[in-house]
Amino acid sequence: MPETDAKRARRGTIALFVASAVLATVGVTLLLGTGSAERPAVTAPAPTAAASSPRAAGHGSASPAASSSPAAASSRPAAPQAPSPVPEPMQEAARTFVIAWASHDARPGKDTSYDDASRRAADHAAGDLAKDLRTRASGSAGARQWLDWKDDRVQVTATVLQVSLPDGAPAPTGDSGFARVLYKVTQKPATGPSTESEEQVALKLRLGGDGNWRVVGLPDV
């Protein structure tokens, strides 16, 4: 049966409504998709100062520089030991000998040679050493030194600084022992400044029958 105008108008209206619904659905879909794409991504929170700070990370633990280890303590140098003393009578004998032995006086009217000091020291010595000191003649070095002192009229004075037991020497006994004498030598000319130096000598001493200690040897000379 031929379609009437009314039916054709109704079908057009229905088609128009369906097309509008389809367009609306597509528009909503596009709108939702675009909004999701533009939403910013969620990021992890930045580390706090307590987590990133070196001081916060090390809080409560000792600093390596502040801590001391047994190895560090053992590497420190040991304090030097004090010299071992010798009995006072030995010290006095050693002192007297060295002052006589190392002092010279080249001023006019005083000593006549370098060996005058050895003669004075012989009075505080015993045995072969005493004999040697009394008869000793200085060599060429001593003779030259004496001439230099004589030209400048030098007075040489020995001052004892310390008397102690030499390193490695046995302890003194009742009648013998060793001593190391540290002394200062001052050379004072008639004009000009004085000069000073420190010297040392090892002595062997023995107790004599008269009860006096005397030097019987010069181990280092």
3D architecture notes:
There is one protein chain. This protein has eight helices and five strands, in the order αααααβαααββββ. It has 221 residues and is an alpha+beta fold. It has a five-stranded antiparallel sheet with strand order 1-2-3-4-5. Helix 5 packs antiparallel against helix 6 and helix 6 runs antiparallel to helix 7. The N terminus is likely disordered.
State the gist of this model.
The protein is of the alpha+beta class and 221 residues long. 41% of the residues lie in helices and 19% in strands.
List the helices and strands and how they pair.
Layout: H1 5-38, H2 49-52, H3 54-57, H4 70-74, H5 88-102, E1 104-105, H6 116-122, H7 127-135, H8 140-152, E2 155-164, E3 176-188, E4 195-207, E5 213-217
Antiparallel strand pairs: 1-2, 2-3, 3-4, 4-5
Helix pairs in contact: 5-6, 6-7
> What would the principal axes of the Cα set say about the shape?
globular
Q: Low-confidence parts, pLDDT < 50 over ≥5 residues?
A: 1-7, 15-19, 26-70
What are the secondary-structure elements, in order, as H or E?
HHHHHEHHHEEEE
**What gap, in angstroms, lies between the N and C termini?**
157 Å
For the biggest sheet, the summary is: 5 strands, antiparallel
Q: Which structural class is indicated by helix and strand composition?
A: alpha+beta
Query: What level of helicity do the residues show?
Result: 40-55%
Kindly state the number of beta strands.
Answer: 5
Mean pLDDT: 78
Strands of the biggest beta sheet: in what spatial order?
Answer: 1-2-3-4-5
Radius of gyration: 54 Å
Strand content of the residues, in percent? 15-25%
Q: What's the helix count?
A: 8
